Amino acid sequence: xxLAAIVLLLIxxxxxxxxxEHTCAHDTPELxxxxxxxxxxxxxLYLPRRRQMHGAQVSESAPLRxxxxxxxxxxxxxxxxxAGDVRPDFNGGTVRCxxxxxxxxxxxxxxxxxxxxRAIQQLASALSVDPVDAPIRVPAGSCNEFxxxxxxxxxxxxxxxxxxxxxxxxAESTLAWAGACRLDDAGRPVIGRANFNxxxxxxxxxxxxxxxxxxxxxxxxxxxxxxFSESVFHAYxxxxxxxxxxxxxxRRVPSALAAARDFLGCAALDFVELEDEGGPGSxxxxxxxxVFRDELMTAAGGSALSAITLGV
Length: 312
Prior knowledge:
Helix content is about 30%, strand content about 15%. By secondary structure, the protein is of the alpha+beta class. The chain has a four-stranded mixed β-sheet with strand order 2-6-8-7. It has a three-stranded antiparallel β-sheet with strand order 9-10-11. Strands 1-5 form a two-stranded antiparallel sheet.
């Protein structure tokens, strides 16, 4: 093969790799506006915590319990069943379905039985919380673009977080997006929503690299719904000058700051730098890729879920 052919092949492979990258939509103006509006108009929920109720008798945290509702994957009219259908995009709009948007039985099973359960399990393994000590009663109007089963208004038991899941059409490069719907009285998200693009739900096997990448993307998006979002931590975000240019940074988050100091070997560090480039979808709710290159919560989605993210 000639040198020119090799160079051309490398260019094609690079472009194909870039094209296949998931584009996180969390910081797009449309999604941020929806999240902010819902959080602003929704009263915070009082949820008794185990440590709060039992005091010194309970000292240990427990793995995070996320309970997912898949009602919108089976309710007629809530997903694409044929090309030409007009269906919700779960962010206030509707979309005319293409053939690739159809949620087949295999795609539904991939999301419901493989991708999301694995993502939830990874988060449970990494995150411990002071457990909610009573069923979460989901108020009417929560996550109002999603279907909330009537039983959830009476309470979802054994949960620290309730997640509503849809599979509506989305931009070609977006595998999923997610966000918080309700906060508790301490400002911690306890109810949220996630939408998965049906175009990207086909699996080539349960344990392939492509499947693991989808799971990793789901973890990234669920972390946004759990609170790694400018719409939730805006009270901790300040303006600063970093390397001679304006930047957005996280302050007053001790555990994340301690992890960043350790990661960078800089005891004097007094902030965690956030992404401020990359256009809509990237800036504001991600770690600065230049600094935290392989971290899962950079906009490009690395593979390392670090103590920096868990500390936020």
